Amino acid sequence: MARLLDYPEGLEFTDLQFLSGPRAINASATESIAGFIQTTASPFGAWSFQVTFPPLQGVIARRHRGWIVGLQGGANATRFPFPDGDRMTPAEAGITGSVESQPWGNGESWSNGKGWRATYPLVALDAPAAMGDSVIALANTFWGWQLDVGSQIGLSPFYFGMHVVTEVIGDGRYRVWPPLRKAFDTDSYATLAPTLAVRLTGLDAANIQRDAQAAQNMTATFVEVFDYDVRDYFTE
Fold first, then answer.
1. Which of 204, 193, 205, 199 is nearest to 223 (CA)?
2. DSSP-based helix, strand, coil % in the chain, nearest 5
3. Got the DSSP string for 5-54?
4. Which domains does the chain show, CATH number per domain?
5. Taken in order 88, 94, 96, 102, is the CA torsion positive or negative?
């Protein structure tokens, strides 16, 4: 089986660019005699994007190098915690207090030198959702009724996917794209920190380049691996 790799700890990127919007599968277009073009597509498109990395040195450069080599030009996949630089503020999400790294009450940190920090709360689903549904309902807790068009969410537990709100229907009900990759019940939760499974789009989709000072001028282009395919074809 193919492997599912972890995203390298501490590896950041400076730019993320979606490529031509979400990729559509089996897209087509027809043109009438009058010149009107009707475009159609399967709803199950896949996210595709390119990331650009800053100059890297030392342990982070080694982790990046091993990760890219391990992805084997698309043969293996990786977890990709999807960032949102425009995510709602902690106060908007119902968090009180700081989300910055803090020491424990005795002033000590974890053994790795890092403190603890609050995370954005999960919100329960208010109604079951079937695989392929594009409307979800969230409970009226924390940020559940506060999402806006463009918000990025994921679902849990044990799910790879990122969904964007395209319509606020009201009372915690939202239309999202892409449709859900699996069914969820009311014991499931929505999160503002979605994780995708992705693979390189091909052998030339990433580069490893270094000059005398640092590894730099590096990009990688990814396409989503659907949640159900991860479970069928990939292993740790």
1. 199
2. 10, 35, 55
3. EPPPTT---SEEEESSSSBPSS-EEEE-TT--EEEE--S--B-EEEEEEP
4. 1-30+39-82+196-236 (3.30.200), 84-89+120-193 (2.40.30)
5. negative
Question: pLDDT tens per residue, the chain (236 residues)?
Answer: 899 999 999 999 999 999 855 555 455 555 556 666 655 545 557 899 999 999 999 999 999 999 999 999 999 999 999 989 898 888 888 777 666 666 666 766 666 666 665 678 999 999 999 999 999 999 999 999 999 999 999 999 999 999 999 999 999 999 999 999 999 999 999 999 999 999 999 999 999 999 999 999 999 999 999 999 999 999 87
Q: What is the dihedral sign for C-alpha 216, 85, 89, 47?
A: negative
Using CB atoms within 10 Å of the CB of residue 56, give its burial: 0 to 12 exposed, 13 to 18 middle, 19+ buried: buried
Q: Which of 50, 11, 4 is nearest to 205 (CA)?
A: 50
User: Any bridge partners for residue 128, and if so which?
Assistant: none
CA Rg value for the chain: 20
Whole-prediction pTM: 0.84
